[in-house]
Amino acid sequence: MAGVRARMGGLLLAAALAWPALAANLQISPVMITLRAGQGASGITLQNLGEAAVFGQVRVFQWEQKDGDDVLTPSPDVVASPPIIQIAPKSSQMIRLVRRSEQLPPSELTYRILIDEIPKDDGPASGVDIRLRYSVPLFVLPADARAAPALAWSVFKRDGAWMLRVRNSGTQRAQIGALQLSNAAGQRFEIAAGLFGYVLAGRVREWRLPTAGDADLSGTLAVQANINARPSSATTVARVD
């Protein structure tokens, strides 16, 4: 995938948003990394709980959002060491993540650390048989300590399905969870009980809502959600294109 822009589809996104990042015999901690002012490095601990060795590779991607979707592009901005892992049974290994630049960005930078578990025989170069993929978000906070998301919500219908578009004009990402919509009649629609997704700083993200096409989401809607783990509310007017 090196040198090629890769869209992160639903399957990869599902793996990326696993909380906690625990599957099979490999446990990863932490599940989110934040680099603050003056902090140029961090790390991920991989723990092999199984009876057989775990082999894998670690890659760093810039995480952007374009045309309403997530986009991953290989990035040299953050170095993962070691990039190839071999963890003995009942052992752990630290992956060190070092940011090359010491400059604080005006808006938050976002990356995804992809950790692929691979069979021993194939080796990391084949890229054919990936057993498990873990995706850990890494955020580099902006210079302004007051950075925050600023969201505008839109609900609309496209091809018979209800869609949600969220624009973040702020300088920090918005992690959306516990999302509910309520219509003017007071009817509630639970969109997500836990984590729903992210809208990166200065970006727009779209989702198809898990509601029936004939759900009564027209007119004025109340939006309730946890934004970066804090309760938030807003209103929007749904439309049918």
Overview of this structure, please?
- Residues 1-23 form the signal peptide.
- This protein has two domains: 6-140, Sandwich (Immunoglobulin-like), CATH 2.60.40.10; 151-240, Immunoglobulin-like (Sandwich), CATH 2.60.40.
- With 241 residues, the chain is mostly beta strands.
- Strands 1, 4, 6, 7, 9, 11 and 12 form a seven-stranded mixed beta sheet that branches.
- The longest helix is centred in the first third of the chain and has 7 residues, at 10-16.
- Mean pLDDT is 88; it is low at 1-23.
- It has one helix at 10-16; strands at 6-7, 22-23, 26-29, 33-35, 41-48, 54-66, 69-74, 78-81, 84-87, 92-99, 109-118, 132-140, 151-158, 161-168, 174-182, 188-199, 204-208, 219-227, 230-240.
- Strand 18 and strand 19 form a beta hairpin.
- 3% of the residues lie in helices and 56% in strands.
- It has one helix and 19 strands.
Second-tier CATH architecture of the largest domain? Sandwich
What pattern of helices and strands is seen along the backbone?
A: EHEEEEEEEEEEEEEEEEEE
CATH homologous superfamily of the largest domain - what is it? Immunoglobulins
Percent of residues in helices comes to under 10%
| Top-tier CATH class of the largest domain | Mainly Beta
Structural class: mainly beta
Radius of gyration: 20 Å
Got a strand count? Answer: 19
Described by strand count, sense and barrel closure, the largest sheet is: 7 strands, mixed
Low-confidence stretches: 1-23
Domain Pili assembly chaperone N-terminal: 26-144
Signal peptide: 1-23
Protein name: Fimbria/pilus periplasmic chaperone
InterPro entries: Ig-like_fold, PapD-like_sf, Periplasmic_pilus_chap, Pili_assmbl_chaperone_N
